[in-house]
Amino acid sequence: MLNSLRGRLRRILSLRTIVRVLAARAGAAAARLGPVRERVYIAANRDGELRGNLAEIHRALQSHAPTPRILLEVQATLEGGEIPLISLVEGVFRIFLRSYRVASSRLVIVDDYFFPIYPVKKRPGVTIVQVWHACGAFKRFGRATLEAEWGADQMFLKWVPIHSNYDLMLVSSASVAPIYAEAFGQPVERISAAFGIPRTDALLPSPQRDARERAIRERLGLHDGRTTILYAPTFRGTDLKRAAAPELLDIAALSRALGSKYRLILRLHPFVKSAMHIPPEVGDFVVDASAEPDVNEVMLAGDILVSDYSSIIFEYALLNRPMAFLAPDLAAYERERGFFFDYRTGVPGPVLESTEQLARWIGAKAFDQQRVRDFATASFDVMDGRATERFVSEIALPALRGEPIRIPPPMTRT
After folding, report:
1. DSSP 88-109
2. Is CATH 3.40.50.11820 the classification given to domain 2-197+384-400?
3. 310 partner at 20 to 30 Å CA-CA among 1, 42, 340, 376?
4. pLDDT digits over 329-347, tens only?
């Protein structure tokens, strides 16, 4: 009976997938009736906000003279995994329109899975760049999650070859290019670390970074000189629309153990829509920065990072500040999601199993900064603060002129 139910569900999902594929192909066909337009189509499809690389690129393009024509897509409804709970007509129209925009724009920039790109043959004269929303190669993603509970399966790939049709994919280090090539099913020659990662520009030392750090600390009320601990865990659950925060940190116990010299900045994953419980007895120990739009600015406010399996650790390493990992559910998470490296030896800080261990580590102040520096060096080939400028001048503007983009050969470390 269970197998029969699974088979029926797969047939339903397959039928809906076919409808969506046909809508995408119709949109692309309609676009081919007209010329490719000299515009940039920036499509954000994660949490209804323009963040990270896309935000930096969008800002740079807007300030460029003359300003290119930009078509911005910021969609709050998550795609991928589960079918969005919308009417069939609305869904078909939305996919048709997005596919039309992809096929009629000279340059398309995305930072995640974007359905309208994949089930069609890419139109000549259109350049598609995947800038991805995470640095390094940490948790498994893309085709590396095939047949996982929340990943794609072979039936879906038959109709939707996910992460296909990219002309260029940005990565932070050439060492992870083969991993991305496998996860995206793309030639490794289209994957490059030579341009840098735009959103890391704001984290590298500069007077502008210092000013932003002062501003975010003031905005969050962190002006009393206390040491700040940024707690930034990733979400839990296989359904992104019902993502939950992990209840692993005992905030009250941490407050009692550390005393009045510390403050905790709480930054939940953008997928998590419900607030984490903050005990009333902790007073002003906790500052909830989950609603702050720019995670880079929140990172600047943290003197110490505590995370679990979030890729925020790559960017935070550029600040050369201590990190620890509260991960008592490591075995379960590894079974569910999996990693590209050995978690316990690969992360740049101690892996802890309780709030008490975390409090002792923070109080001892025995931080291994060399481990953080080594992690940053291994994770980034380019750290010069000019990645966004380079992206605009060497990728975006040539693509808008209809020129093929040039991907430099991999850098070699000396």
Report:
1. HHHHHHHHHHHHHHHHHEEEEE
2. yes
3. 42
4. 999 988 888 899 999 999 9
